Amino acid sequence: MDRSNRVVTGLVNKSTAYTSLKEHILGVDFPWYFMEPQPDSPFPLYCHTLIDRPEFGLRLPEIKSQFAELAHDVVLETCEFNNVKVNCIYRIAINATEHMSKSGVVSTTHVDHEFYHRNLLIYFTNAGGATVVEDYRHEPEVDTFLLFSGHHYHELPEYGRRVVLVATFLD
């Protein structure tokens, strides 16, 4: 098991599953849920939880969306294509943040779970605003991914709306 903090970036495999998921997410009928600002995210965002967090006790990840299986396939394809083994997916969500007139606003540096996990971010739009993992600064582009573990934060989009898939898993 590779438990290093290495960061992997690249282009997504534009498979049938990826293309279908992206069309749904960016479509007018995709359901979004408003999230008030929180301590780790001091700005509002929209979220669609596909597989819910297994944070407390022995609770298992729980499927919350009809798009969970499609997103699951995209996560596995992306990881397999990059020689990353996935043993258990803990969480998958789609997040959307929008440009605000305030500059320099970032999320709090955080980890997604208090136990070992890897993160996969897949960017569905171009909007600027970096994701920073430890000492690595990633400037996202549409149809790219970022794979990492460790503390991270993200900046607000520089323009428009950033839509990203967030998955956490055990490798």
What value does the average pLDDT take? 86
What is the name of the CATH class?
A: Mainly Beta
Low-confidence regions: none
Order of helices and strands: EHEEEHEEEEEEE
Based on secondary structure, the structural category is alpha+beta
For the terminal residues, how far apart are their CA atoms?
7 Å
Number of domains: 1
Sheet with most strands: 8 strands, antiparallel
Number of strand elements: 11
What is the percentage of strand-forming residues? 25-35%
Number of helices: 2
Structural description of this entry:
Helices cover 15% and strands 34% of the residues. The chain has 171 residues and is α+β, with helices and mostly antiparallel strands. It has one domain: Sandwich (Jelly Rolls), CATH 2.60.120. The strands form 2 sheets. Strands 1, 2, 3, 4, 5, 6, 9 and 11 form an 8-stranded antiparallel sheet that branches. It has a 3-stranded antiparallel sheet with strand order 8-7-10, with no helix packed on it. Helix 1 crosses helix 2.
